[in-house]
Amino acid sequence: MGDVLSTHLDDSRRQYIAEKTGKILKDFFRFYEDQYGVALFNSMRYEIEGTGGPQAQLLWRKVPLDERVIFSGNLFQYLEDSKKWRNRFSLVPHNYGLVLYENKAAYERQIPPRAIINSAGYKILTSMDHYLELVGNSLPGPAPKSGAAPILKCPTQYPLILWHPYSRHYYFCVMTEPEQEKWLAVFQDCVRHCNNGIPEDSKVEGPAFTDAIRMYRQSKEQYGTWELLCGNEVQILSNLVMEELGPELKSVISPRMKGKPQERQRQWIQISDAVYRMVYEQTQAHFEAMATKCVMARPAMESVIRTDMDQIITSKEHLASKIRAFILPKAEVCVRNHVQPYIPSILEALMIPTSQGFTEVRDVFFKEVTDMNLNVINEGGIDKLGEYMEKLSQLAYHPVKMQSCYEKMDQLKLEGLQQRFDVSSASVFKQRAQIHMREQMDNAVYTFETLLHQELGKGPTKEELCKSIQRILERVLKKYDYDSSTVRKKFFREALLQITIPFLLKKLAPTCKSELPRFQELIFEDFARFILVENTYEEVVLQTVMKDIMQAVKEAAVQRKHNLYRDSMVMHNSDPNLHLLAEGVPIDWGEEYSSGSPGEADLSAEKRRRAKQVVSVIHDDEAGLPYEPCPEMLSPGGPEKEPIPYPASPDSVTELRGLLVKELQVESPQSVAEPLTNGTSPRESPQPLEAEGEKSLRQQASPLNHTHHESAPTIPSEEAVSPPATPIRRLPSEEEADSDHSKPSDKETGEEVSGQGGNPYVQTTTEDSTGVQTEF
């Protein structure tokens, strides 16, 4: 690798890369400084004038679930330097940075991890053919001959590849299809979270940065959505530089690369990764300097804005009126002929998968709460409630359980519209909708937690608790229906604007953009940092199409399409006391409602530690780690035992409702109850409850039974992932490695340690997820 880099990235070429990067960043920072003043003014104006949208009915979690482990387990990783596959213990903490340890023992002994991977901008591939196609398209020249050895061979049929257009690739594999599906859901959640790297609560820096990116790309005649607007600011800027620098280097370096096509592909991956690291380091230093400069200038700008707010607003409105008079006739014709006819079809394409995903969120939440209620009835009531609620509190962060919601967005297709409106990919809309789904699920769960915790203060009996859970569930679902409608309508409006506005700007640019400089004289010099002609022009264009977009979304709500509420249905302060409950101390279910004797303190601590993991390990400790034999497998001459099947969990709302009603109406304490959904036997038969509980359950057969007649779709059952009941399986490369009786060194793996020591559950996993790959 060193020879390849020293040959193609000598000192003169490195100097060229640094100069080119510096020039691109300098051009971008001019846009950023301009947008920073505009964003600051808009933020301060909104604080004074903004009324906001409809009030949310659900509570939101102010203290996030940190110090949680999302997932952990073993999988094989391919090490490019040694060309061997090694078993790695992998862990995903709450910040979604994939942490790789030598093995589980190294993790438990607090040995620093081999690597921490930030997956922003990556694609997760499960097909080796798809990966080889992407690699082949990345480098010009002759393609490998048919039947030629590929650049990588996977020893199993279940690969998991992290592919990035510029950075290094990561190769993993597992032994079974269920494991692959589970890891795929986890990796996709990591990518989804890391792509959303700019904080939502950044009211000035965030909008200034994204607007500067858009303005910079439009100055290069690049309109439309950008697929690589993912990660934190430094990662996005690095992608921006590589988008321009990469093709230049490829055209210069590619003709000088020697060897077979496969070898040339390997070399280019190494070269591209090395260039990306150089660009990233330079970008990080420059961006930090620019951010500091803007922060230093902010107090003076805020002082001017506070003093002259009214005059700035008047000056901006005067400028907008002049620009509107100039472009409005052209813009209206363009909207009428090229945009208006397509708005209904775009909206329908967005509504169907998005609404199905939110309906699935509702059904998953209903199923989980109903399962918990069944278990409370049959397993000792409040004594077990803390354990169940701690698991329920993590539902929104459970990649596998949420996967059925997220995968609804895979149906989003914009073919035909993508080419017309210059939409490079629908992934930006898919991921945004999926993030909204996770937020609404967490809001519903947190609201349920808060109301249930209040109810428990009354000291209910088991039967009273069951009825309370159902009553609270119905109450939360009504709030969810209202909030999900509000969130979806806002998402549809934003998506339609994101699709149509770049198209309109591109259409109007030849006749309008050259005339904009003459409007600069209408802006007072003292206000020039807060009013920009280009921004005002875009706002005017936005207003020309906004009326049609608002009308289309309103008509969809009036027709009750996809459970959307009308705008006239407002629930302001419908539950004022609820928001007061959210001001209290966060609920610690495991601590407050834990069961067990003092002599079981150590066991309870270990149990609580494992409970903090959102998704269970692929193979629990008692069953043996992946690719390690269970004790039963190691016993010589032992007879093979068939695994005991667990009762299947009911997977439809109707089955769940019927099961719960059946449990509540048991008349004889000696009667045998139905098997529980978690495969346990009931300890005690419940007392009969009033028919009111059955009535409340019937009312939840449809998401909005009072507004439409569609029944709720059935919930697909979650497949249980169990350890493979086969003897230990080892890869050939591991057998060779065992003969060496030595662990791979950092030099061999080509990875660097991210930190030194620390608590494995906190300090080694709380690396800021917005940072780029730690092994840089």
From TrEMBL:
Chain residue ranges for the region called Disordered: 620-652, 666-776
Any one Pfam family match given in the protein's UniProt record, by short name: Niban2
GO terms, biological process: gonadotropin secretion; negative regulation of apoptotic process; negative regulation of cell population proliferation; negative regulation of DNA biosynthetic process; negative regulation of DNA-templated transcription
Segments of skewed composition (Basic and acidic residues): 739-750
Residue ranges with Polar residues bias: 667-684, 761-776
InterPro entries: Niban-like (IPR026088), Niban_1/2/3_dom (IPR059060), PH-like_dom_sf (IPR011993), PH_domain (IPR001849)
Top-level lineage group: Eukaryota
Leader peptide range in chain numbering: none
Any one Gene Ontology cellular component term annotated for this protein: cytosol
Residues covered by the PH domain: 68-192
Entry GO MF terms: transcription coactivator activity
Family: Belongs to the Niban family.
Cross-referenced PANTHER family: NIBAN FAMILY MEMBER, PROTEIN NIBAN 2
Protein name: Niban-like protein 1
Species name: Phascolarctos cinereus
